[in-house]
Amino acid sequence: MQSGPEQAPEGIAFPTDPSSGRRSTSEASRHILATAAGAVSDEAAEAIRQTRNWRKGYVDHFHRLVELGLASPEAAVAIARAALDATRREFVFHGADGDLGIDDAMAQPRDELGTLTIDGRSTEGPAPWAVPVDGEWLSGDRLRVQLERWVLRGVMEPSAADALHRCLDNPDWFDLSDRTFALLGAASEAGPLGWLARWRARLVAIDVPTAGPWNRILREVRQGNGVLHAPVAANAGVTAKELHDGWQEGLGANLLTQAPAIARWLAGFGTPLDVGCLAYLDGEKHTRVSVAMDAIADALQRDNPDTTIAYMATPTDSFAVPDAVADRVMTAWRERSLIKKAAQWPLGRYAFAPGVTRRYECSNGKRYGIVDSTITQQGPNYALAKRLQQWRATVARADGRHAVMNIAPSTTTRSVTSNPALAAGFAGADLFNVEVFAPETTNALMAALWVHELRHGKAASRPETTLDHPFELFMDNAIHGGLWSVPYLPRTVLPFAAAAGFMRQHLPGRKG
d(Cα 213, Cα 160) in Å, to the nearest integer? Predict the structure, then answer.
């Protein structure tokens, strides 16, 4: 029995592969990476084109792009520009009339969105910033001590601790009544919604028009002291009073299917926005929603150059790191114990491979390393979605715009722990001195870092702050959970962490 034509998803979609007639995620990803590499190396671009098993081979090519970008600041920006241009050419917006180019679709939104405003009920001032750690709320000197413990254990970089100390030194930073935050994927489990709602922020929330996310958004906003502006379908007739019992039909907007309308609606506020690109979806939808957020963020910064954009980068990617970090990892590899060396030998060269193997000389006169923490189980669609965000931050900052890109630690969100292999790996990660954070800890830390980047006059995310290389934006403020400190290539030890984690999860007496 022959199948009919592939049903195209509505809205942002992968392109149709001419050779197969199907929407191939692999071919699109391969083409984008080859175009990016081709900006600086024909040889690297051809190697990407010749990779047949993309799901197995993609990791090396994402890593290679970091190597190529380290050659010079100009190379890094050229790669990012080429990648973003290719993404815009590859992806389409599918509707009733077929496929439109992303730029064409963004220029002619078809939906109309209205605005519903809801005030928080609290009359208190901005909530004091504190961080929940292992069931305790830490603030003041106790939080300062914890920050230094994380630095000493190699869980966060000193720059991140310095930024958070500044936040403790400047509690007035957390009165955000002068700022308007547009949260794309506002109900994200590790996102900053709850904190911003208690820091008097003006919130513009985007999330899918369903009860789950919006009931959380409404609850957080009502408990806080800020104000929420929410999108509603034209002529929906929803009022704030009707939302007393929860979400009603017509409230919300879908990033995948309504990106052009969302961009126009957000621009209509007529003020600089702080745009947080937070949405996550499973599989190929994650790439598509990242493309949607990218199109919206780019449109808003073009409309108002004072608009800022912000991302929470995953630590499970390849990152250029300072020479000192590379030295830390290489030293830890050389000085690992005889027991660990002996345990490694019978397992072969693919187990417990070194985390950093060399330094790279850059045209700026500095040396860098590369930490490759890619987890293959997350797949090439996830890698492309997250790298797209790095490319946008790189280009935005090169163009004189404010772009925040802080690395967040691996976190036990539902979307991560629903993958049994990752859940088990996280449960055993501490055997390799990697710390996996609870969502409430991550969102407290990352919300404060975002405030720091908006308030601190010398923040690395500010285009007027001189960086020796664009990749230093990602090095600053990194909370990687230890993935930049472990002496092993993380994906080579994940199976052993997962085995230990599985025993802890399932075998009697093995919970500790």
Answer: 30
Residue 203 β-bridge partners: 181, 228
Say which DSSP state 128 is in: P
**474: Cβ–Cβ under 8 A, 6 or more apart, which residues?**
313, 319, 320, 390, 393, 405, 407
- Closest to 107 in 3D by CA, of 255, 270, 260, 257: 260
Count the residues in the chain.
512
- The answer to whether 467 touches 149, Cβ cutoff 8 Å, is no
β 92-95/11-13 pair status: antiparallel
Could you count the other beta carbons within 10 Å of the beta carbon of residue 314? 26
Cβ atoms of residues 449 and 156 within 8 Å = no
pLDDT in tens, the chain (512 residues): 333 345 667 899 998 877 777 888 999 999 999 999 999 999 999 999 999 999 999 999 999 999 999 999 999 999 999 999 999 999 999 988 889 999 999 999 988 999 999 999 999 999 999 999 999 999 999 999 999 999 999 999 999 999 999 999 999 999 999 999 999 999 999 899 999 999 999 999 999 999 999 999 999 999 999 999 999 998 777 777 777 777 888 899 999 999 999 999 999 999 999 999 999 999 999 999 999 999 999 999 999 999 999 999 999 999 999 999 999 999 999 887 654 554 555 454 556 788 899 999 999 999 999 999 998 888 999 999 999 999 999 999 999 999 999 999 999 888 777 778 778 888 888 888 999 999 999 999 999 999 999 999 999 999 999 999 999 999 999 999 999 999 999 888 888 888 888 788 776 554 44
pTM of the model: 0.93
Distance CA 2, CA 428 (A): 46
CA end-to-end span of the chain: 54
Helix (H, G, I), strand (E, B) or coil at 54: helix
Tell the burial category of 94 from Cβ atoms under 10 Å away from its Cβ (0-12, 13-18, 19+): buried
CA distance 497 to 494: 5
Containing H/E element for 313? strand 308-313
